[in-house]
């Protein structure tokens, strides 16, 4: 048996329960990973199916499940969804990457961009951004310059279109997008995207940022969800990425 967080009804954070559930058994193409709890999945391989070729027991792995259900001590998932965790990245850092990285890269691919530039203004500038617009001080209407692409994580694409050039793509991660010009696509779980970005993680060019109050112990799952759902700002704050095409 293993400890896992689960819920049996919809409701506030308090409907979650911590209890005992069966440890799943890996099928032919699956890994059984002992999870280091976090958002998404990162952990140590403890068993594998006969068809798994790229991983061995005791390998450190990270990835994203196709379905919800990572708040447990063990999880099974297909080999194609998992990559080896870079040695210079902690378990906590790795746990923050799969959904965020795959959302970003898939958004750029959908928009047809092949190159990309790399909320606190100083923090964002420190990541390599050329120009920062502080949305707490400047409204979308007040941005004079128009951009080739807007990647909106603040959840209001109606305003994002104001800073985009005519017919320029606007990526909005909300459900459902708030602009009638928008069209929807679902995030695809993919270990390939994480593998492509592995060298950038190892070199330090791509960095994971952990909330300054975390990580939370596994037993404090309700507290962690409460922070996520509260009105308190998380670090880093949400941002809109503005981009010009590179020649």
UniProtKB/TrEMBL annotation:
Oxidoreductase recorded as keyword: yes
A Pfam entry, by short name: ADH_zinc_N_2
Record family assignment: Belongs to the zinc-containing alcohol dehydrogenase family. Quinone oxidoreductase subfamily.
Keyword Oxidoreductase annotated: yes
The species this protein was found in: Sesamum alatum
Database matches in InterPro entries: AOR-like (IPR044626), GroES-like_sf (IPR011032)
Protein name, as recorded: 2-methylene-furan-3-one reductase
Highest taxon, organism lineage: Eukaryota
Keywords: Oxidoreductase
A Gene Ontology molecular function term of the record: oxidoreductase activity, acting on the CH-CH group of donors, NAD or NADP as acceptor
